[in-house]
Amino acid sequence: MTLIQNNSKKRTCAVFIFDGFADQDVSLTMAWLGGQNSDFAIETFSASGHPVTSTSGLRVMPHTSLKMMDPEDFDLLLLPGGDMWKEGDNLEIFPLITSTLGKRPIAAISAATLALADLGLLNDVPHTSNFPGFLKHYCPEYAGEDLYQCTPCVNTGNIITANGVALIEFAYEILKTFDVFDDVKAQEWKELYLSSGEVMSFFE
Question: What is the pTM (predicted TM-score) of this model?
Answer without folding.
Answer: 0.89
